[in-house]
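[audit] Reproducing an earlier prediction to check determinism. Same input, same settings, fresh worker. If the tokens differ from the archived copy the diff job will pick it up downstream; this log only records the rerun itself.
[audit] input (187 residues):
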Amino acid sequence: MTEQRVGQNGQSQFVPHLLQRRLSGLGAVLFGLTIAGPASAAADLVLIPDLPTLVSLIVFFLLLVLATNALIFRPIFQALDERAKRVEGARERAEELDAESNALLDRYQSSIRDARAEAESNRKNKLGHAREEQIGMAEAARAQAEAKIEEARAGLEAALVAAREGLRASSSDIARAVAARVIGREL
């Protein structure tokens, strides 16, 4: 038969019922042996007790050590070992989580760098296309302006030729009119 007890750490412990009875009976016997005898004067002081008392005290001490070990120290050490294992497990888990978080952070930073590099590449491509387009538009405008300038020059040249021809035609008329006035007669 076993009896279930709850220890300080909240875990159940099983203590054999027969062992509990024997320890309590043995404790009562040993307690009876340790009852002090009548006090005696200092002159009767014995430094080495008689052999049966000494053996009973040694046996009682050993039984107390065994009982204390079984009932107190072993559960305490077991609880401390379990606690140390839980702490070590928590540390290992924390280290794993730290390694995972560092890996995630590295992956995040890497993806940010990649995204920034891609955005910079796209920006440079668009800027290059915009510059090429601007250069093309400027060249088209320059060509159009030069065509208009050539057209204006051609128009101006034609007007100049027409004006010269008109002046030549009218210059002979003007020269005749001036000569006729100077001379006073018509030519």
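[audit] rerun output stored. Observation attached for the diff report: The helical segments are 17-33, 51-183.
[audit] end
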